Amino acid sequence: MDVAHGDPRPAAGPSDACRTRVVLGIVGDKWSLLVVRNLRNGPRRFTELKKAIDGISQRMLTVTLRSLERDGILTRTVHNVMPPHVSYELTEMGITLREATAPLLEWSIAHLARIDDARATYDARTDTPVAS
Amino acid sequence: MDVAHGDPRPAAGPSDACRTRVVLGIVGDKWSLLVVRNLRNGPRRFTELKKAIDGISQRMLTVTLRSLERDGILTRTVHNVMPPHVSYELTEMGITLREATAPLLEWSIAHLARIDDARATYDARTDTPVAS
């Protein structure tokens, strides 16, 4: 692995660069971004998250929630009521993450049409469209 | 696929939710985030990006650059000099994306230590650490 030769930033050595990449592998992931966003109004049950996040599989939601719990982004609470259920809630650190990801989510929503246009232009110009 | 029943936001219907997910699949990806970040000071050559982004493979960098070019985030320029080379530069839209991702990158760097602590606590509590 190369260290960050081309990075003019004086801070963060190669070790921090590598660790940043690992952290981004968790929090900079579309499912993580969407889970964190859907917890913005307080605790949610697993089934509520499953319904709210278009296209996520049961397994992917389970894996994503476990990673975010491990990273200290959310807490998992088992409610021993009838019927029993599990809920998820952002930690204090999770709330700051949600704030940090909000601009990226807003950007994605605001630029949907321009990205569609760019893709159509690119695909018309090349014979080999990139799988999206 | 379920529509976003649990989402109290009145805007964006299921179609937009699905398209947002597709866009996040491209821009909300650790390699895309790192490529965009490394173009913040102007055009960079392929080899400069490869050196600057710790751990990225030649193939993953190629795929990431092509996706970002297709989405209108960056432009690719072939320089017919000796030796010939290719450079990449953020478009106007790419610059706004970089601004939108900056808080998430800063958050990741700022919270490295707390996430490490949370992982250690979680792994000590459970017998089955999550692969990171």
TrEMBL record, chains A, B:
<keyword id="KW-0805">Transcription regulation</keyword>
<keyword id="KW-0238">DNA-binding</keyword>
<dbReference type="InterPro" id="IPR002577">
    <property type="entry name" value="HTH_HxlR"/>
</dbReference>
<dbReference type="GO" id="GO:0003677">
    <property type="term" value="F:DNA binding"/>
</dbReference>
<dbReference type="InterPro" id="IPR036388">
    <property type="entry name" value="WH-like_DNA-bd_sf"/>
</dbReference>
<feature type="domain" description="HTH hxlR-type">
    <location>
        <begin position="18"/>
        <end position="116"/>
    </location>
</feature>
<dbReference type="Pfam" id="PF01638">
    <property type="entry name" value="HxlR"/>
</dbReference>
<dbReference type="InterPro" id="IPR036390">
    <property type="entry name" value="WH_DNA-bd_sf"/>
</dbReference>
<keyword id="KW-0804">Transcription</keyword>
<protein>
    <submittedName>
        <fullName>Transcriptional regulator</fullName>
    </submittedName>
</protein>
